[in-house]
Every structure is written in C-alpha cells, then in structure tokens.
Amino acid sequence: MKREFLKGLGLEDTVIDQIMDENGKDINKANEKVKTLEAEVNNTKELLTNANKEIDSYKSMDIEAIKKSAEDYKTKFETAEKDYQAKIQEIEYNNKLDKYVGTLNLKNDIYKKEVISRIKEKELKFDGDTLLGAEELVKGFKEQYADAFVDSKLKPSFADTTPGTPSNSSENTLRIAMGLKPKE
Fold it and tell me: Which of 3, 77, 127, 156 has the smallest number of Cβ neighbours within 10 A?
C-alpha cells in the first residue's frame, strides 16, 4: 500500500501514518514468517542432498558381501570360543593328571611322563578327582617297571662305627690301612 493511494481517498496525514504503521507491522510479521520458511526449506534441501549422497553410497556397497563377511566373523568367533574352551579343558585335565601322577611316588620325571603318556593314549577321563581306569593301568605299569616306584618300606641304615669306639675311628682305620700308627 502506498501513501498516494490513501491521500487519493481523502484521508488525513495522521490517519495515513497510523494505517502505514499497522501495515508495516503486518509486513514485518509476514517477512519474518517468510524468512523462517526459507530457512526450513534450505535445511530440508540440505538434508535431502545428504540423504541422497548416503543412499548413493549404499548403492555402491555389496550387501551380500557384507552379510558374508559378518557370517565369516561369526564363524571365526564361534571357532575361537570352542578352541578356547578346549584349551581350558586340556589345561584342567593336565593339572589333574599331574596331581594324580604326583601321588604315585614315581622315582623320576621320565617315569611320570611315561605314565602320563599311557593315560592320555588310553584317553582315561576324570570323574571329579578320580581317574577312571587308572588303577589297572598303574598296576600293569608296576608289573612292567617295578623299580620305577619309590619304595615305601624303610630300609635299614648301616653305620660304619661300632658303639663305644671313638668317632675318629674311621681316620684310625685309614691310618692302619696305610701302615701308620693310630691316633690316640
């Protein structure tokens, strides 16, 4: 709206000023609304552009290959988990086996390794702390290698001196053997 139009209607300047002020307020409100809508349109265009770029990037991807890769990783994980569990069981078995073989009173590590080897060869299993089938195996090993076990019977000890003789008697015995006089 223009001032000349209102003057042509025969309105006074004060009335024209009031009408122009009110019209200016309406125009300002409309301009603000237009600016807000323009910003929303620009934002929507930008989002649309970004979405189209993202969609285009998916078009170039091989979804089947991604699915196959995910399945391969899942299989590898499951295999690794099974291997881990098997190793843990093997370690626990070996610890129990070492403990069991340690109770047999074998003379040395060579015999211990042989007994362990035979137990593993027969694939004997533990039921709690009891090794099933071990008694027969150890019995057969004792028959084959009787000297492999530490003798649990006490052996008599022999002394080289007779009670009542001086402790330096071994030295005197040596002196006599060499043709020298014993010490007194």
Answer: 156
| Bridge partners (DSSP) listed for residue 127 | 130
Domain ranges of the chain: 3-57, 65-148
Kindly state the tokens that stand for 48: 């649309």
Cβ proximity of 124 and 137 under 8 Å: yes
Measured distance CA(21)–CA(27) in Å, rounded: 10
- Report the C-alpha gap between 52 and 50 in whole angstroms: 5
pLDDT of residue 151: 74
CA distance 85 to 2: 89
Q: So what's the pLDDT on residue 105? A: 85
In this prediction the pTM is 0.48
| Residue 165, pLDDT above cutoff 60 | no
Residue type, 172: N
Structure confidence at residue 14 (pLDDT):
92
Q: For 146, which DSSP code?
A: G
